[in-house]
Amino acid sequence: MSILSKHYLKILNMKDKSEPDKALEKIKNFWDKVAPRYAQDKIKDMVSYEKKLKKTQSYFYKNMNVLEIGCGTGMTEVFHVPFVKEYVATDISSQMVDLARKRAFDASVKNMKFEVNSYNNLSIRDGSMDAVLAMSLLHLVQTPDDCLRMIHKKLRKDGLFISSTMCLGDKINFLKVVFPVMRFFGLAPAGSVQFFKKDTLLDRFERNNFAIEYQWQPSDKKACFVVAKKT
Q1: Rounded distance between C-alpha atoms, residue 58 and residue 17, angstroms
Q2: pLDDT, tens digit, for every residue of 142-201?
Q3: Which of 59, 181, 184, 215 gives a 20 to 30 Å CA spacing to 175?
Q4: Is 219 contained in some domain?
Q5: Does residue 8 lie in a domain region?
Q6: Over the stretch 20-63, which tens digit does the pLDDT of each residue have?
Q7: Number of domains in the chain
Q8: Residue numbers of the domain that contains 87
Q9: Domain assignment of residue 9, yes or no
């Protein structure tokens, strides 16, 4: 191979490596921008929200170590921390994490840690978590299988993965046209939006070595709440 060819390949490789970083930066910038407004949003379906809270807490115990990916502004996490030993809240958005830290401080929470990072770059040791939570996240990640494999690694044997995921594939397909337009105007996050169907979402859990312990969906227009065990 000529020196010129080697140099050209090096440039191509550098370009390829930078593309994921650019995509993550766009996602981070979007959530940083909407964080203040996001913190003010009211829960639209309080009945379903409270049911998920109570169901999640029914799996918690005092010596439990919990990781949450995509913690947002920390509203839900503050309700969970009294039931566990340690709660690690992570998000790609530094603005979201700043708001979550403030919320934890205002609530006098002592057993909560924070990390600003994408799910695939977390400093959490493999096999160290009793439970991992990802609420309203899986349908927003570009590579859901990679995310599920990472979660599987972070969990101890028989650890739990608790999630809530929009099944947009069960909705009218015009959303596939709407989302790119919304992204163009900065009204939706950059990157891929996954159009899961409920059945294919549950199959994806099982393919990535999770056994479904519990699943609930208030209606086909609502998120699918799943508790799965590492196998």
Answers
A1: 42
A2: 899 999 999 999 999 999 999 999 998 866 565 666 666 666 556 666 566 788 899 999
A3: 215
A4: yes
A5: no
A6: 678 788 888 888 888 888 788 888 899 999 999 999 999 999 99
A7: 1
A8: 17-230
A9: no
Query: Angle, to 10 degrees, between the axis of helix 3-40 and the axis of helix 94-106?
Result: 40
Dump pLDDT digits (tens) for 105-128: 999 999 999 999 999 999 999 999
Burial of 131 (0-12, 13-18, 19+ CB in 10 A): buried
In a domain, 143, yes or no: yes
Residues 6+ apart with CB under 8 A from 86: 65, 66, 111, 112, 113
**CA geometry: angle at 54 spanning 151 and 135, to 5°?**
35
Measured CA to CA, the distance from residue 27 to residue 25 in angstroms comes to: 5
Of 165, 167, 175, which is closest to residue 196 (Cα–Cα)? 167
